[in-house]
Amino acid sequence: MNAIEIRALTKKYKDTVAVNGLTLSIGEGELFSLLGVNGAGKTTTIKMLSCLIKPTHGDALLLGKSILTDANGVKSIIGISPQETAVAPGLSVQENLELMCGIYGFSREKTESRVEELTIECRLQDILGKKAGKLSGGWQRRLSIAMALIGEPKILFLDEPTLGLDVIARSELWDTIRALKGKTTVILTTHYMEEAESLSDRIGIMKNGKLIALGTAQALMEQAGKDRFEEAFVALVKEAKI
Amino acid sequence: MRMLTFAKRSLKEILRDPLTLVFGLGFPGILILLLSAIQANVPVNLFEIDRLAPGMTVFGLSFMTLFSATLIAKDRESAFLIRLYATPMKAADFIFGYTLPIVPIAVAQSAVCYGIGLLLGMEPTVNIFYGLLFAIPIALFFVGLGLLFGSILNQKQVGGLCGALLTNLTAWLSGIWFDLELVGGAFQKIANALPFYHAVQLEQAVFAGNFPEVLPHIGWVLGYGVTAIVLAVAVFLEQMKKG
């Protein structure tokens, strides 16, 4: 079974069509990147898939659960790390993780074990007692991903997870994201071409709310007749007449 | 369970903000001390402690709007709310999670005002307990405003509207510092139509043990409180839908 089946998903705002008839399947354990220039519809797509906003038309099934008719079911199997850091700034790193455990209704024993697991997985040992609001951008992003993972999601949405990070912090976050491959289905949006190329099993490129290209990084480069992925992305976006 | 977890978090966030302690808990207390010092040096009864301390609790409670609105606006701006919207949390978990922690803070705030009043010679009576009890509906009115403003304004706007404007409105239109009849006219009519004056009258009546006088004033406070909370819940739910 595919992890995500998107069927003609559409979102309209008054005069604007933010996402236009998106149809797409994403396999279980796949790391799928959504690329596009600003306003392409990536974040709106993620918001619809995570039941934050309702689509105008169409539907999507996440492990068989409809975003239209089973929002609670969908919310129980997903995790999201939004564009912004989205942490509780006055709480320590450990308290942030414990807060998310409480929200998912974990027992005290399970909370302890999940916090320990995520601390190791996301390498947060040295900052557990520090206030989240005092952390650097890179550490906040890493905490944000750990918070998204705490509910043991089957599907994880990462909206521009490395935005504004320096090279080292980005590289470290890539390692964290790579470690999820195969275990969790990851949908990633990014503006960094090398990030999509390096991490993704497949890449979808959106423009003006429509999916204009889909495939592996290699396949997209061949399709565009370019040697570098960034050039392929630019060519595909410019050529698409939408 | 989720509601309590979230409420605990809200309480920690508010109490760990040093401005909460300085402005919320400290400022009304300092005002009581200052005004009492003035009273000690003038021959007329301007700021009798028996009326000043209950009145100042209402001024202190106006900071509850600032606390709750700031927290909600901060959560919206940092996308922390977006993260939580995508979890199994329900609307009621959010609303009570933001509201419940304010109740103990409000009671503590009022206790500080009455405590300072006692130090300055106010009579220790059981009515102080009732004063703390009646502070709760007043606090709920201010929290309702906080939920409303926090849902529609950003942090900067919250600071201006709830931190400066609302606290000043509460101070000037409540009759804490001066008898509104001294000004009279439109000023008094406006003050009478708003809940701040009635909240002060309510606290002063309770502390004085004039319980029959409580009734009209608590009606005003509850009326405004319920309206603010219903409006706030509607706006908050609308914001949730927008993601």
Write structural notes for this entry:
- The complex is a heterodimer of chains A (242) and B (243).
- By secondary structure, chain A is of the alpha/beta class.
- In chain A, 37% of the residues lie in helices and 26% in strands.
- Chain A has nine helices and ten strands.
- In chain A, a hairpin with a 2-residue loop joins strand 1 and strand 2 (16-27).
- In chain A, helix 5 (137-149) packs parallel to helix 6 (167-178).
- The longest helix of chain A is centred in the middle third of the chain and has 14 residues, at 108-121.
- Chain B is mainly α.
- The mean pLDDT of chain B is 91.
- In chain B, helix 1 packs parallel to helix 6.
- Chain B is globular, with a radius of gyration of 18 Å.
- Chains A and B meet through strand 6, helix 3 and helix 5 of A and helix 1 and helix 5 of B.
Q: What radius of gyration of chain A results from the CA coordinates?
A: 18 Å
Distance from first to last alpha carbon of chain B: 23 Å
Mean pLDDT of chain B: 91
Poorly predicted tracts of residues of chain B: none
* Elements of chain A, N to C (H/E): EEEHEEHEHHHEHEHEEHH
**Percent of residues of chain A in beta strands?**
25-35%
Total of DSSP H or I helical runs spanning 4+ residues of chain B: 13
Characterize the largest beta sheet of chain A: strand count, sense, and whether it forms a barrel: 6 strands, mixed
Distance between the termini of chain A: 32 Å
Report strand % of chain B. Answer: under 5%
| Helix percentage of chain A | 25-40%
Structural class of chain B: mainly alpha
Summarize the structure.
The complex is a heterodimer of chains A (242) and B (243). Chain A has helices at 42-49, 71-75, 93-103, 108-121, 137-149, 167-178, 193-199, 217-224, 229-239, and strands spanning 2-13, 16-27, 31-35, 57-62, 65-66, 78-81, 155-159, 185-189, 202-207, 210-215. With 242 residues, chain A is of the alpha/beta class.
